[in-house]
Design brief:
Chain B: The complex is composed of six subunits: RnfA, RnfB, RnfC, RnfD, RnfE and RnfG. The complex is a heterotrimer of chains A (about 180), B (about 500) and C (about 350). Chain A is mostly helical and about 180 residues long. Helices cover about 35% and strands about 10% of the residues of chain A. A two-stranded antiparallel ribbon of chain A has the order 1-4. In chain A, strands 2-3 form a two-stranded antiparallel ribbon. Among the domains of chain B are: about 1-25 and about 120-285, Rossmann fold (3-Layer(aba) Sandwich); about 35-115 and about 290-365, Ubiquitin-like (UB roll) (Roll). Classes of the chains: A mainly alpha (about 180), B alpha/beta (about 500), C mainly alpha (about 350).
Amino acid sequence: MSVAVLFLTLLGAVLGLALGVAAKKFHVDGDPIVDEIAAMMPGSNCGQCGYAGCPAAAAAIADGSAAVTLCPPGGKALAQTLAAKLGITIDLTALVDDGPQIASVAEEICIGCCRCSKVCPTDAILGAAKQIHNVIREACTGCGNCIDRCPTEALVMQAVPVTVQHWVWPKPAMVPGAFAA
Amino acid sequence: MGIFEKIFRSHPRWGVHPNDHKRPAADTPLRSLPVPEFLYVPMQQHVGGPARPVVLVGQRVLKGELVAEAQGNVSAPVHAPTSGRITAIGEITAPHPSGLSQLAVTIAADGADTWCARVPVSDPFALAPEEIARRTAAAGVVGLGGATFPAAVKFNLGRRLKVNTLIVNGGECEPYLSSDDRIMRDRAPEVVDGLRIVMHAIGASEALVGIEDNKPEAIAALTVAAAAFGNVHIRPVPARYPMGSDKQLIHTLTGKEVPADARAAEVGVLVHNVSTCAAVHRALRRGEPLVERIVTLNGGALARPGNVLAPIGTLVVDLLRFAGVIGRPARLLLGGPMMGVVLPHARVPIVKGASGILALDASEALLPEAGPCIRCGSCTRACPMGLLPLEMASRIVAEDLDGATGFGLSDCIACGCCAYVCPSQIPLVQYFSYAKGELSARERNRLRNEAGRRLAEERLARLAREAQEKAAVAARRKAEREAARAAAAAVAAPARPPAVRAVRAPSEAAT
Amino acid sequence: MSSPLHASPVAAPHAATASTVARVMLSVAAALLPATVYGFWLYGWPAVHLWWITIGAALLGEAICLRLMQRPVLRVLGDGSALLTGWLLALSLPPWGPWWVGVVGGLFATIIAKQVFGGLGQNLFNPAMVARVVLLISFPVPMTIWTAPSPMLSANSPGLVDGLRITFGTLPTMLDAMSSATIFGYARTELSRGVDLLQALAAEPAPAISLLGERAGSLGETASLLIAAGGLLLLGLRIITWHIPLAMLAAIALPAWLMHGLDPARYLDVGTHLLSGGAMLGAFFIATDYVTSPNTALGQLVFGAGVGFLTYVIRTWGGYPEGVAFAVLLMNALTPVIDRFIRPRIYGRDRRGTPLEIDA
């Protein structure tokens, strides 16, 4: 009896010590997944998701308080990448994705006030005071921050036009029981 | 398995043998299409950057005159296919399954078909290889087998990598098509001269012309034409789809296998199509840019199938009218039935790579409903690349695109053998096209995100720098003011103005 | 991201072979026909009745599931896969077995072994063999009473109505009178009694090893040569490849030849192993089932060899006299593993998938 008690006590003490040492030795600072997710995000810190920038959104996704579908500029593609990263399945049919969007300036209405260019996170809007502004397509991330700033509603979001070069074949219609999913 | 392979497998072990439907169209003599009233010349008829129009609406052009210039390293210029007046520069439906439009120059033909001034070369072999490449590029010659890669870019690549063997692709393994067959029969001397010019341009010492053995007339014609040249070898190859694919033809003719991440030139061979060789001949010997091509018109819905010489930019509807349509075609294809694309309608122009227009009738254009995969493995046996189409497709169905990539999706050449043999009629090629497109869209998106992130970081750095500079300027102003005040205080006493200027000078530079 | 104009254009290729799933299944059924008809003649009307009852039950099971899943019943049944499953199962049952064996087996094959897994193409195990093994384990007595051949039109062959009565169990005495043993069952019994095979096979009641199979057994077991002929037909039609049958038969023959050479008194010879039991049916019709066998040639060789070797092991040292069904099921379970590790070499890459070296 006493041997058993002694043995179990000893066993508990040794294992507890081992766990304690391991916790100290293999301690991880921060959650590496947050950095990995942040690296996948658009990184323009546009704030459309409601979080203060992409790193904050990444942290929220990592701790589960935000959905992977939160990022409008990232769209469906980002949601899929994030879901794959986190190993979760999401229903993308509910996610409305009009494809990538970019801002464009209606030149006849623009008054050259420069308010939009100040809020553009990627410096994608060109133009000096009293000059018609222009959006550099390649640099625009489609965050939409500029839209509300325009006093004359000259800025609108537009779908990036699909060209012959960028067109993607649609996935074939699903056949019931065609493949193991 | 060496011995097993020899005993139990006939060569080649890949591919399929579809009914070729090539005759009678292939045996019908070549006809010329009367120049249509309007021609619509697309700016993107090749792999690479689209050409940029250099003409204005209303301008008169002669046949062969430059209409659009090449843009970028991989690109090709476009020339006027006939003489006439430019009536529009705008969008037209592209010969593409999406039905999307692309930029094209519209020419109203004047009917005279007058050539511009041409500069023929009497002895191309006296020219430097670079000069041949330059002239080929200027003539807008692209790969006419369907890939439409600018020919001159390939010449330069071949020369740089010291290619020894030129492989001339006369395989034409696609059913229904016979434009290459026709050019080999009717213009054999041009083909042979053209391929010798190409050999000179890339510095190759021998040429192997691979022709499927279902084209005996073409083999005979080229054998005669090449008889005088000891380094040009005509090699009949078994008729087996996709023999006309570069990798399969290289392997059949030379036994060399092109590594997965390498180009054919890196193993010392370069492939050019027979029609491309003929176009090179015309570009050099006659100074004629690529403005017309032989197009096969075939399919059950046509009354007079055959091959026709048509100017680039001819509308498909004009070609169909020429060949006579019986009833209403069930499906219009650009290219052959194995790899060709569906045309959204007949008002699309033909391009340099348009080897054939097929008007299939209802019995040819079956649209069987896909059933479940029974894992019969037919696709695996048919795949010329040694892939497992059924495994890739099952991953793609489950949206596991990376899993499909792990099964070799990037090695798929979209030849269509798998879907052709599938007893369940699963649209395997479409699954792969979808996955490839989706993956490249994701890659584009990733690059875009990266660029956006870099720009955002640069902006933050700029804002920080500006704030810093503002602070510096403010500090300097403050110092200036204090200096001025000190100076003013010192006015009563002996003054020292140069000190003030010395302080102000850098602050002016900063603002 | 599809175009607004043409939501789903038709993708290449715009040509297809005439091959369809239904054509494949019906060709297999046709290849089974000679052996089946011969079996009918050999065992008389009860065999015919059990055959159609089993197929009917298999079709019924499939139809019930399709109905529940709201899928088109007639069109899917038309692919012939349930028919073939029922047929193969019927060929592996005792010809004079009671009706409910066929019904339970047929329903089990299509409902549990096939549709529960997701239907055609999704099942891990061969449905007919699953059903056979389930029957064998659950109802060992009716599954091991074999009838000696009594060819139709012969004196003691039951007529159409008597056949029905035998199948539906209202004529029990006749069955007992005619029961016999299969060659493997006989060999095992004799060995366990301490009689060696040399004596046992020479003795009077030993089942004959005739090429046309006039001996006790299931429909698919006795006429091995007709089954093999059907298999060669499938090979000729390119519906199956040679890899699985050859590997399986070789893997049975090789250990049989070795062991028989070592001790003929304890181990049966090669001919008996190949021509008796389910070896031929298994090699050409069961193990070659597309769904449950590997996809690559090399994988099929491994698979076939595994089935053959396991068959020999179970027949010789296992608890049951016949082992094809168990061997097939065991190798079915290994198929995903085989497919995972044995893949064809991709053009331009080595077997591990790394690009080839450039040698200009």
